[in-house]
Specification:
Helices cover 64% and strands 0% of the residues. The chain is mainly α. The termini are far apart.
Length: 102
Amino acid sequence: MAHVAPTSHRRAARRSHRGHRSDDGPLQLSTWLGLTFAFIVGLVLTAQAHVGVHAAGVTLLVMLVPLTVAVFVTAFRRGFGSGPAALTTAAALAFVLLKFFL
């Protein structure tokens, strides 16, 4: 059986391994631009006539919606970073949701 040091002799957990990560700062511009670019690619793919390409676009957009919602929840907690880029991503998300639900 392996030796385990008593609790009093253990080193404290490193800062990077702790659960609270509020020191990370606001979301980066590349996060918003990447999501917007992925939405554009998904919309272009769904406009194609080939069934497989169209299905790939729909799949991409369906996966992006919950991911984008999660990013916005994180942004409310940590800060939006670049406001115009976040608004562009929000507009792309709204356009996709309107396209699928109307």
